[in-house]
Design goal:
The protein is an alpha/beta fold and 413 residues long. The chain has 2 domains: 138 residues, Aspartate Aminotransferase, domain 1 (Alpha-Beta Complex); 237 residues, Aspartate Aminotransferase, domain 2 (3-Layer(aba) Sandwich), CATH 3.40.640.10. 41% of the residues lie in helices and 15% in strands. The chain contains 14 helices and 14 strands. The strands form 3 sheets. Strands 4-10-9-8-7-5-6 form a 7-stranded mixed sheet, sandwiched between helices. Strands 1-2-3-12 form a 4-stranded mixed sheet, with helices on both faces. The chain has a 3-stranded antiparallel sheet with strand order 11-14-13. Helix 2 packs antiparallel against helix 11, helix 3 packs parallel to helix 11 and helix 12 packs parallel to helix 14. The radius of gyration is 22 Å and the shape is globular. The N and C termini lie far apart (45 Å). The mean pLDDT is 94.
Length: 413
């Protein structure tokens, strides 16, 4: 179809289509107020600027898994660092944005993952995309094997590298090995995968991937974004919990979830880190994270390495809520981890469900639909935190039990 000059008609039809299908994303204006987790203020008329009516709602879909964004020690460190360094970094790392706290944070992530060096980025998305793009585009004749449920940041980095890629069935080690077998042993290879998959909450068979990587002479690139701060001693991630940090070549993580701040990183050998640092456009040409943010990230890591109290409370709450949701008959996707996905299977019903939860029950959840998950796999993704009480969780279960019946949603198998 030729657009001619009528671009607006094309844009409007595209938007109308996703609205009709129930896939239009509505951003609810919320204010997460420090010290009041898991509550937030919902600006019911649409814009916080007009100071219209607000409603206090319980948030059940935050990636601030441990509530560290509001931890008093993290806040104190952030405030003190902002007073010292200001609110910006001054530029890219190679021009004017290489602060002492950046260097210290990189040492901290290297230590966390038992690696020689670390490299921090403005976000976990950037860390994945820039690193995989650089490795794929710079290593001659490289081929990347990518799990079919890898994060969009990994997919985009691999795609833009324009290197050859093979997508293997999710967590299917037989399929991965069959694809590895087709390549010469001496051909450069990277296996890119995720430890805790954010939409299903399931775990990767990390040890099996390591075994195949050794057998077929491949580098391993592991995304631990949804695992750092949560699993392993001191929150070092799922690979650490399994005792195989040392066997992963490149570990990627971020500070926005288990650590409650913002930013991303990779940890690896000195040589790999220096290589990515020297060739990655997504690192070289991006303003570095503010020093105050870096200081807050490091303090959050320090708090988690000193105590597992938040993790213990998190998993106690996860266990309770998982059991209660199962009893209620909602179609929860069972897994080993802390993410509780509930399959709805219909985009329109998913949106209706979330709207009713917000308007009638004061519970904030957002629909997850295509392209984040395949069509027919629409869901809500529940994340409970240490700050949720039994009463909060019971409110959610009560509401879902009623709405599951009212909306004629499929019962758990």
């Amino acid at each position: 179809m030729s657009l001619g000059n009528d671009y607006n008609t094309f844009f409007q039809k595209s938007i109308d289509t996703i609205k009709r299908d129930g896939r239009y994303r509505t951003f609810i204006p919320l204010e997460r107020l420090c010290g009041d987790a898991p509550y937030a203020l919902w600006h019911t008329a649409g814009s916080p600027v007009t100071q219209e009516e607000t409603k206090r709602v319980i948030v059940f879909c935050s990636n601030d898994y441990l509530g560290m964004s509001q931890h008093p020690d993290v806040l104190k460190t952030f405030h003190e660092a902002a007073d010292i360094y200001g609110v910006g970094s001054g530029g890219t790392r190679n021009i004017s944005g290489n602060a002492k706290v950046h260097v210290e944070l990189e040492k901290a992530v290297a230590s966390l993952h038992e690696k020689e060096a670390g490299l921090i980025f403005s976000s976990g998305y950037t860390a994945n995309k820039a690193s995989l793009y650089t490795l794929g585009s710079q290593i001659p004749n490289c081929i990347i094997f990518s799990d079919e449920k890898n994060h969009a940041s990994m997919i985009h980095g691999i795609r833009q590298s324009r290197t050859e890629k093979h997508v293997f069935a999710h967590n299917d080690m037989t399929d991965l090995e069959e694809k590895l077998k087709t390549q010469p042993l001496d051909r450069p290879k990277i296996i890119a995968f995720v430890s805790v998959y954010s939409m299903d909450g399931d775990f990767a068979p990390i040890k099996h991937v390591i075994d195949l990587a050794k057998k077929y002479n491949a580098l391993t690139f592991l995304d631990e974004v949804h695992a750092v701060g949560i699993y392993g001693a001191g929150g070092a991630g799922l690979a650490a919990a399994l005792g195989c940090n040392h066997a992963i070549d490149i570990i990627q993580g971020n500070f926005a979830k288990g650590y409650g701040v913002v930013g991303g990183y990779i940890a690896a050998s000195h040589l790999i880190i220096d290589f990515v640092r020297s060739f990655a456009p997504g690192f070289i040409f991006t303003t570095s994270i503010p020093p105050a943010v870096a200081a807050a990230c490091q303090k959050s890591m320090e708090v988690q390495r000193q105590s597992d109290a938040y993790r213990k409370q998190l998993f106690a709450n996860v266990s309770y809520l998982r059991d209660e949701l199962t009893k209620a008959g909602v179609s929860i996707i069972l897994n080993q981890g802390h993410i509780l996905p509930i399959r709805v299977g219909d985009a329109l019903k998913c949106k209706i469900l979330c709207d009713i939860l917000l308007n009638d029950y004061g519970i904030y959840l957002q629909p997850i639909n295509y392209p984040t998950v395949p069509m027919g796999e629409e869901r809500i993704r529940v994340t409970v935190t240490p700050q949720h009480t039994k009463e909060h969780m019971d409110q959610l279960v009560h509401a879902l039990r009623i709405l599951w019946s009212d909306l004629d949603l499929a019962k758990a198998a």
